[in-house]
Amino acid sequence: MRWGKCLAIFGPILFAIFVDGCGPGRTSRYRRHQPRTPLVRKQHEPSDCHEYGLCAAGLPEGPITLADWESNTKRSHQLVPLYDDNIIITDEEGTGVDRMMTQ
């Protein structure tokens, strides 16, 4: 009879001590929020579209090769030079081909 009462009192306490070791620890209750950086003026980030998804960039058309550039195909005529001061483009060859981008 005594052991039954002792087991009824100390059993849940011992069970809680042993099971507590299986948990994620003290830090699982409170999670720090990362500081949010403000958006730049006129910056837009779509919340329903992944960065590399089809809704962001469209279907891939493949790379523009040097053969496309030299043969004056339709794809090479769609390219326009980019002269933006905010974007740094390294032109190692000095030909200016690195600035050509699609619209």
From TrEMBL:
One of the Pfam families matching this protein, by short name: HH_signal
Signal peptide coordinates: 1-21
Positions of the Hedgehog N-terminal signalling domain: 22-103
Record key words, sorted: Signal
InterPro entries reported for this sequence: Hedgehog_signalling_dom, Zn_M74/Hedgehog-like
GO biological process: cell-cell signaling
UniProt entry tagged with the keyword Signal: yes
Top-rank taxon: Eukaryota
Protein name according to UniProt: Hedgehog N-terminal signalling domain-containing protein
Record lineage: Eukaryota, Metazoa, Ecdysozoa, Arthropoda, Hexapoda
